[in-house]
Amino acid sequence: LIVIIALGESIVAIGIGTSELERDATYALSVVVAFAGVAALWWAYFDFTAVAAERSLRRASPATRGPLARDVFTFFHYPVVLGIIFYAVAAKKTLEHPLDPLSEAGRWALGLGVAAFLCAFALMRFRVLRRVAWERLGAAAVALVVAVSLDGADAIVTLGVVILVLILSVAVETARLHEIRAALRAR
After folding, report:
1. With contact defined as beta carbons under 8 Å apart, do 162 and 114 qualify?
2. Model-level pTM?
3. Using one digit for the tens of pLDDT, what is the confidence trace for 41-60?
4. For a Cys-Cys bond, which of 22, 60, 100, 177 suits 65, CB 3.0-4.6 Å?
């Protein structure tokens, strides 16, 4: 529930960030890119790992169920929510001035937000399935490096590239785990 609230607050931040923009092509592109980021975060959260975690909790012995639930739904959710909040901050700052470079703080918020979000899922997957989420770890590193290093680019470009990294990582993961995901959803 807290993740849904955080994603909703990201949408509110996008609305606030665009409130002063002139309604033109830049406005439309900015809104689309920022909402694509929220949609990508939603997709990354609610697709595979959440289903696998739920199934693992149902199958866990009573002795291991409590610690597993604590780790997945408490400890590993802190960076998920923090990542969404950082993304919202970066998206708001981007949308306030989409054609200016994103501030250093904004770039760090964007990079660290997406990286924390993705690394939390890697931790969850490892804790639940004992499998490493290489796509998410790689995307976390790339998103952080890209966000921090694009200091002269327009803010909307920086945001768009980081979101593209996120979308590509989840798409690759979805394709690679297609059969496993289908089997989990069928049960």
Report:
1. yes
2. 0.88
3. 998 888 777 677 777 888 88
4. 60
